[in-house]
């Protein structure tokens, strides 16, 4: 039904209503009722013929607009005597309800038709490349580190993040008033427990779990917590990977061999390593391991378009500090009932965020926690 036809029945309804309002009577009422029926039929036909949501919206606007003939019929009944007002009002309301029903049915028809059209697969359309997720950059680095040590025969263990003082400090040779406790900026929780400040407590629990002392060669990756001021290089939570090798006759040579092999596998076959003396309460002797700068290949200088400049990654030294390590302290063995006269071992630990920042040239540790896809999709 065209819009012209709908306008025509609207005009007929207005004329019939004007005649009725001038002299309400049975004879004047019949044309109004006929005009209302014609109006309903026209709306039903127009709604049924609509082929798009936009076309149907135009029919609805024409049929039920505020200044349309149907709404005008209802608004003009004020001066009509009560008995006639009820009759005309009821007829107009029935017409309005019937028109709304016809429009709703037409809407359902168009929606169903659109769903059928959308369900049709058009083989001529170009394919859509699906979005593929990927591990977070920290997980990638952790898995690579762990994978290299797995190749050396290490297994992996994880444990609780809420620890007690004994496993986080006491068994690791941190006395009650040991000054090294201050460097850990511990986060305490209700009941005297604390958030672990390193993954070393897992080493203690692993050694304690042995029914009798026996060799151990394991890695301990996980999240750790410290009450540090958050800035570009510090965070209150970060990730570590620690390693432990305990057996009879383990020496510093085993430690240097294992860590140098890992460095070459992770940073490249030409990587060189060096070990410097350091201090940790749970190892003796203790050391720091550096690797030759993988950006300037240990030279401390880089070639640029402007000429040779100091390498900004290693600050011209040619070396980058990577991790701490050392031989397990005899007091740690005693805390887990291992005889230090029989058993020896080494331990090491590295920060995953630090390794990732060095490898990929990331300047701010906070990028790892911001869930910014523009950043994460680079790795």
Full CATH superfamily name of the largest domain: Bira Bifunctional Protein, Domain 2
Q: Outline the low-pLDDT stretches.
A: none
* Succession of helices and strands: HHHHHHEEHEEHEEHEEEEEHEHH
Q: Major beta sheet, specifics?
A: 7 strands, mixed
Mean pLDDT: 84
First-to-last CA distance: 61 Å
Would you kindly provide a written description of the structure presented here, covering whatever features stand out?
The protein has helices spanning 3-22, 26-49, 53-64, 69-75, 82-119, 137-150, 165-168, 200-208, 252-267, 330-335, 352-360, 373-376; strands at residues 155-156, 162-163, 187-188, 194-195, 216-225, 237-247, 273-280, 283-292, 301-304, 307-310, 319-328, 344-351. It has twelve helices and twelve strands. It has 379 residues and is of the alpha+beta class. Strand 9 and strand 10 form a beta hairpin. It has a seven-stranded mixed beta sheet with strand order 1-5-6-12-11-8-7, sandwiched between helices. Strands 2-4-3 form a three-stranded antiparallel beta sheet. A two-stranded antiparallel sheet has the order 9-10. The model has no long low-confidence stretch (mean pLDDT 84). It has two domains: 3-119, no CATH class; 137-376, 2-Layer Sandwich (BirA Bifunctional Protein, domain 2).
Q: What's the quick description here?
A:
With 379 residues, this protein is α+β, with helices and mostly antiparallel strands.
